[in-house]
Amino acid sequence: MPDAYILGIETSCDETGAAVVRSGEEIVSNIVASQIALHQPYGGVVPELASREHLRAIVPVVRQALEKSKRTYATVDAIAVTQGPGLAGALLVGISYAKALAYALEKPLIAVNHLEGHIHSVLLEERAKGNHAVNFPVLALVVSGGHTHLYLAEQHCDGWVYENVGHTRDDAAGEAFDKTAKLLGLGYPGGPIIDRLSAYGDPTAVKFAISQMKHRDRRDQNQPDSARPHFDFSYSGIKTAVLRHVETHNMRERVEKRRKALSALAQPKLEDYLASCDQETLDLIASFQRAIVGDLVSKALTAARACNAATLFVTGGVAANAELRRSFESEAAKEGLPAYFPSRPLSTDNAAMIAAAAYPRLLARQFASADFCAEPGLALR
Ligand code: KG4
Ligand code: ZN
C-alpha cells in the first residue's frame, strides 16, 4: 500500500491535540495545546472548562498540524478521532469536528480508543527508529490519570486484539500522584512535580504498604477470560496513608504555608518547590513515589511472567516518571524481557498516538459510521 497520511484528533481530557502521521510510523506534525494553566487554580480538571477550551482550540490546533505537515485537507487520506474513554463533553468536541471534516472532505473516519492510542505511541516510535521486530504477545501497562490497566495484546491479520488482565479497583496511579500532591499543597498536575522532588528525598524514610488484591473483581466475574489470573491495583489507600502521616507528624501548617506560597506564583520553578519543602516532606514524597513505582513494576512483571509475554510496553502520562522508567528498565532486563516506553512528549496525551493506532484500521478498512457516539467508559478489547 502506498504511504497513508492520517490526521489524528484527540480531545478526551485536558489537551487539544492534532497530528499528521505517515503510515503509522512517522510523525509529520504533532500539536498539543495544554489546558494545565486553565485548570491549575482548581487543583484538577473541570470538565465544563475543558469542553469550552477544546471548542476554542480545535480549529487553530488542526490548522497548525496541517500547516506544519505541509499537507492540506485534500491530501490527508483519513481522519482519526478519540471515541473514548474520557470526559463526555470533551470527547464530543473532537468527534463533532472530525465528523464534519470527514463529511465535507469525503474522507474515511476512524474511531480510536484512547488506551489503544497510548499503546500505539510506543510502537510508533519504535517503528520510527527502524525497530519493526516487536515480539508478541505484548503486555502493555497503561498508566495515566484515569487508568492503571494491564492488557495482553496480540496482532491478528485484521488488527490488534486486547485482553484486560488487570486494572485499578479505585484510583489510577496518576490520580494518586495528583491527589497526593494536592494534599501536600504542591498544586496540579502532581505527577511531574513529585517526580522532580523525589530526587531530593530519602525513598526509604516512610514505609507504605499498598493494598494487594487477593480476590477477583466482582465486576469481571462474567467476562469470558475469567480463567486467567488478574493483577489488579489499588491506590486510594496510599493517599489516605499520606494524609494520616501529615496529621500525625504535625505537617498541616507547613502544607498550608506551602500552598499559599506556591499559589502566589504563576509558574513555580523547581527552586520554588524546593524552597517550600523541608527534608521531612521531601522524604515523604520520595517514599510515596517509591511505593507506587515498586507496586507497578512488581505487578506488571508478575503478570508478564504469568501471561508468557514476549515484550513489555509501559505507556500513559505516568510512564514519563524517571524512577518508573529506571526501575522497569532494570527489573525487566534481569528477566530478559524487552521493555519499551514512549518518549516523554508522547507519554502524555497527544494526537499522534491516535493517528498511529488508526493506521491498522485504515488497512483493514474499519471505518466509523457517521452516527457513532462518544463513549466515556469505552473498554479496550
Ligand atoms: O495520559 P495522560 O496525559 O492523561 C490521561 O489519559 O489521564 O496522563 C496524565 C497523568 C496525570 O495524572 C499526571 O500527574 C501524570 O500523568 N504524570 C506523571 C508524570 N507526568 C505526568 N506522573 C508521574 N510522573 C511524571 N513525570
Ligand atoms: Zn491518556
Structure overview:
With 381 residues, this protein is of the alpha/beta class. It contains 13 helices and ten strands. It has helices at residues 36-39, 47-69, 88-105, 114-128, 173-183, 190-198, 236-248, 252-263, 270-276, 279-306, 322-334, 344-347, 352-363; strands at 5-10, 15-22, 26-34, 78-84, 109-113, 138-143, 148-156, 159-167, 311-315, 339-340. The strands form two sheets. The chain has a five-stranded mixed sheet with strand order 3-2-1-4-5, with helices on both faces. It has a five-stranded mixed sheet with strand order 8-7-6-9-10, sandwiched between helices. Helix 4 crosses helix 13. It is globular, with a radius of gyration of 21 Å. Bound molecules: 5'-O-[(R)-(carboxyoxy)(hydroxy)phosphoryl]adenosine and zinc ion. Residues 114, 118, 144, 316, 349 line the site of zinc ion (ZN).
Short description:
By secondary structure, the protein is of the alpha/beta class.
Percent of residues in helices comes to 40-55%
Strand order of the largest sheet: 3-2-1-4-5
Q: Which ligands accompany this protein?
A: 5'-O-[(R)-(carboxyoxy)(hydroxy)phosphoryl]adenosine, zinc ion
Give the SSE string: EEEHHEHEHEEEHHHHHHEHEHH
Overall shape: it is globular
Count of separate DSSP helical elements = 13
| Biggest sheet character | 5 strands, mixed
SSE class: alpha/beta
Q: Which blocks of ≥5 consecutive residues have pLDDT under 50? A: none
Strand content: 15-25%
User: What's the N-to-C terminus distance?
Assistant: 26 Å
Mean pLDDT: 94
Number of E strands: 10
Radius of gyration: 21 Å
